[in-house]
Amino acid sequence: MLSRAVCGTSRQLAPVLGYLGSRQKHSLPDLPYDYGALEPHINAQIMQLHHSKHHAAYVNNLNVTEEKYQEALAKDVTAQIALQPALKFNGGGHINHSIFWTNLSPNGGGEPKGELLEAIKRDFGSFDKFKEKLTAASVGVQGSGWGWLGFNKERGHLQIAACPNQDPLQGTTGLIPLLGIDVWEHAYYLQYKNVRPDYLKAIWNVINWENVTERYMACKK
Amino acid sequence: RHQQAAGRQAAWLPVLGYLGSRQKHSLPDLPYDYGALEPHINAQIMQLHHSKHHAAYVNNLNVTEEKYQEALAKGDVTAQIALQPALKFNGGGHINHSIFWTNLSPNGGGEPKGELLEAIKRDFGSFDKFKEKLTAASVGVQGSGWGWLGFNKERGHLQIAACPNQDPLQGTTGLIPLLGIDVWEHAYYLQYKNVRPDYLKAIWNVINWENV
Lengths: 221, 212
Description:
The structure is a homodimer.
Chain A: H1 9-13, H2 44-72, H3 77-103, H4 114-124, H5 127-139, E1 145-152, E2 157-164, H6 169-173, E3 176-182, H7 189-192, H8 196-203, H9 209-220
Antiparallel strand pairs in A: 1-2, 1-3
């Protein structure tokens, strides 16, 4: 049973200088629940492939890319630029999925409470309108990508955004990621086939509002 | 489903009807049964891919073209520009898949012959090197997209390219599409899961070199 505390996972993403002065590698965070825990909304086969194959590949390829980047740094600008797509893709994939696993929970669903709910009402009109907008943004992604609820620090308000492929929300838009919806076909196809809207309907049942609230409270500071 | 390949091209060219209105685009028939490409691409994938995914591009393309017609008639440039992504996405999806079904065949596989083979040897070194390059380009697409063997008319040579999402090869690069490999996850996931390279290995068994 994989049940590590949520807060710890973000530390795994920060490169840590080890005693030998070398970069610590990124590693695949444990899932905070069993592969089958989100059934019937997201099935075990999807969760297992998604976590142990797709996310794992992003982690491995990120480490390889960062090693190559380390070699090119201060020596070869062309090589660094050539590595940028792989860094964004695999780095973004690692960031996005690390957030995603914490955004979901077998005890999820329903609505948020307190300050987050008030902010949602203020910025979108109502929780239902917010749900509609994030669903539409996620369903409407053409190709692979993510729908996001983010926090705009500059303006001090919540914002919905969609990013293509594995482009990370904060790195490409400046918005702080609170809740992500993966709409790559691998996130739902085995269960929902081409009917992405059905996957969206289902995923609201497993949203971990405690986690989304934690992220919101953290970025308001 | 056993319609001649040649007739189907006409189905998606806009044709001015007697009333002077645009003819709608329509889903071309598959030239073979859904299960005909097994074991390389299974029947469930072919059925969903053709009757759901391609069909949706056709329907949405028709809707988008109608809206575009209205915007054009009014001279509403903003609306026209706002419709461009939907036109490229659904139009590209229709173009790409219409080519794709003809690029595959249950009697496919092996190598091309004659002039095409000579051109491949000239432009890539050997058939195997070409196969490696197109495979690498297709496997390497980050996200959804297509690998292509195209013809560069300006330079008179073959070229391999990759396009993101449903961006059509000719419309975005000028290359003439000869052979496309769909690497959207819906093209292989039900059978090959995350192992896109296995799908690529398998698809070479059903390439319709006559069509290419």
